Prior knowledge:
The structure holds two protein chains of two kinds. By secondary structure, chain A is mostly helical. Chain A is built from 15 helices and two strands. In chain A, α4 (144-160) packs antiparallel against α7 (183-212) and α8 (222-249) packs across α9. The two termini of chain A are 32 Å apart. Chain B is mainly α. In chain B, a hairpin with an 8-residue loop joins β2 and β3. In chain B, α10 runs antiparallel to α12, α12 packs antiparallel against α14 (383-411) and α13 packs across α17 (447-469). Chains A and B meet through α2, α3, α4, α9 and α10 of A and α2, β3, α4, α9 and α10 of B.
Amino acid sequence: xxxxxxxxxxxxxxxxxxxxxxxxxxxxxxxxxxxxxxxxxxxxxxxxxxxxxxxxxxxxxxxxxxxxxxxxxxxxxxxxxxxxxxxxxxxxxxxxxxxxxxxxxxxxxxxxxxxxxxxxxxxxxxxxxxxxxxxxxxxxxxxxxxxxxxxxxxxxxxxxxxxxxxxxxxxxxxxxxxxxxxxxxxxxxxxxxxxxxxxxxxxxxxxxxxxxxxxxxxxxxxxxxxxxxxxxxxxxxxxxxxxxxxxxxxxxxxxxxxxxxxxxxxxxxxxxxxxxxxxxxxxxxxxxxxxxxxxxxxxxxxxxxxxxxxxxxxxxxxxxxxxxxxxxxxxxxxxxxxxxxxxxxxxxxxxxxxxxxxxxxxxxxxxxxxxxxxxxxxxxxxxxxxxxxxxxxxxxxxxxxxxxxxxxxxxxxxxxxxxxxxxxxxxxxxxxxxxxxxxxxxxxxxxxxxxxxxxxxxxxxxxxxxxxxxxxx
Amino acid sequence: xxxxxxxxxxxxxxxxxxxxxxxxxxxxxxxxxxxxxxxxxxxxxxxxxxxxxxxxxxxxxxxxxxxxxxxxxxxxxxxxxxxxxxxxxxxxxxxxxxxxxxxxxxxxxxxxxxxxxxxxxxxxxxxxxxxxxxxxxxxxxxxxxxxxxxxxxxxxxxxxxxxxxxxxxxxxxxxxxxxxxxxxxxxxxxxxxxxxxxxxxxxxxxxxxxxxxxxxxxxxxxxxxxxxxxxxxxxxxxxxxxxxxxxxxxxxxxxxxxxxxxxxxxxxxxxxxxxxxxxxxxxxxxxxxxxxxxxxxxxxxxxxxxxxxxxxxxxxxxxxxxxxxxxxxxxxxxxxxxxxxxxxxxxxxxxxxxxxxxxxxxxxxxxxxxxxxxxxxxxxxxxxxxxxxxxxxxxxxxxxxxxxxxxxxxxxxxxxxxxxxxxxxxxxxxxxxxxxxxxxxxxxxxxxxxxxxxxxxxxxxxxxxxxxxxxxxx
Lengths: 473, 474
């Protein structure tokens, strides 16, 4: 029986052009969003590639200068410091994950490039902000996640707000129920028809757009990520259908239904995330950035004043490095930089600690809103969440340690680099996170969407028993 | 007659539980946003004042140092929040709040608050402006969609028109009825806003703030009026109230959610900005080509400057110069660097402003695109305001570095970098002060937005009157 109602309703939707209109709207919105996301991802890819290329070019140039001096082609006085170890600058950058096009997330805010050299301080590594118009950042990106989280529920409402109310207002509901069919079967059949239409459009157009955009489904991480994303979209769809069913089951007019649905959308997509944000910042307020600057400046002053003591201290701590009391200027700068880092890094860690605690609270409270659940899960799949960025930051800091292990002894022993040394310098390579993390987040998101769906769906079905078949005026 | 219609409409709306619920929620959110915004702004201002004090203290506590080292230590400038920033945060979260003013470099602003936040930040922050720009129009739609279509469905429209009510009178009465109902939400919020303003700002800026507050109120009223007019027009023209509601919700979705993002994309497409890497490379190339890198002075360029100094001071050998030459070179490098930065930052910021103009043009399709930049501009939280502050900080930086370089030139003599100055010099340099631009400048910069907002208001009014005039009773 449900199947018959399902097929019949699909035919009705096709006949009154609803399907065509919705197909067109979905196609345009999703097509544009995927295109926009892909363009952004490709640009980011290009920027990372260019960053490494520029870094390598600089190293190659320096190597050439040293080689020329070695071969006597140019006098050493022209580039007196070219072979000093501080002249080496190594590039590091965070490449976009394969499915970044799905969700830009935080990636347009966080600095994704860094340069590592002898004087790098771990608290100052990431300050290369992209030159983005702040008004554009404020508006946000038109990526697939925006369409799915914000616009898709509204489209679902447009499909379902008058699921039963329309038939009741037209008078055909009573006629239908005079047949040997239960109201709940009618409701399920009609809902299923629209669910099928919505899912076909969303999934179909997304996959087509990705294909047209040239995404390689066979690349590592892409296939699995896409499967998770599709499952999440299906779960999100089911959630909003459950909400729509419940609203319909209350038995109000279609106008009231539409209003209540928009109200629920506002609640979950606008109000709850804002209130959550206020809650986490009240529980774990981040220390003042201005205070951070004051401490940093105070540290700089202190270090500058006590530079002689610092050098003596360094002698004592690293006697193996300093053959005698005279320290070259390069090493002197290094000692000062390291001291500044030592004083300021705890402040940075305290800062990060609070932010991490905030994010952990968000992780626990996100189940209050399907929009937040969906966004967190999608960002994890697209590799644009804070966790992956932290992963990158940790790796760059580890690379700073690696470079110091190479460069600091050479600096103190005044061992300068030969051109052949340039061929064996350590390089930064970003290691992706293990898949398990993304999988666990996606799974948590899925459960966070499905469980409320089942509960709300159950309530809706129960409410149907008291459905007023005749409108009360 | 109008008053009678207004009274009837308001009573009907007030008795409707849905309106009371919706209005209560919106009012609650608005008050929450105002309260939080105001508390946050006070906190931020306290922190900023403290930071300014601390920066001066650190500057004076440098001890004995060469003037050039002091120029490298530099000063920090902290962007003050305008008194109305608690209403509309604008783009402030995406702009840094502090800039390091040091020698050789025009540094970017650091510490954007959007970065120091969880992923929830991308859902947007709840400010009074957001509530008024997004939620009040929904409330208007809720109140207005069945004003005329509903009457037609209930059958009362025929009776109403048979009384000979003029379409203009009917339109005005209905509109005012909705406006009075809306006033239940807006008036308490406005009163609270004025109270917050008078408490928060220092005496001198109260008149500045009240001016802008009134202009803001006017702008929002135009926006609400336009929304109301369109809603009434749709309600009058469409067959059923259900279709009217759908149509108005769709307009809201397109106008408030889709168009702003789309416009930002289009603006970037038409006027692309250079990336960070391109910007840095371009700046560095100019320095390299001119032979004025910041660290190692190029011998040819240095010789040129030395020649000029010899002529200026009327001596034949560098050893005879009565002043320190390194300082002269440093200042020359500084002047050169300044014009490079002026050009590149100027170009970059001009591109941003051109992008913003394109976004403003999208107001032809959606009135929110005209209101938002105007609201940000009047609250002092738009990009133009930031650019003004950055320009002022940069001017101070240049004067600070020049003062220090000249000190080294005149006093260092042969000791060069080993010449040490002390707190007397640090104290003698005045602090950075900043005065925000006046209201007339903001209005001048937002002429297009004001015009489009007025255009939408007039369109709304005319559309409502025309649609009601052409209504069919059945």
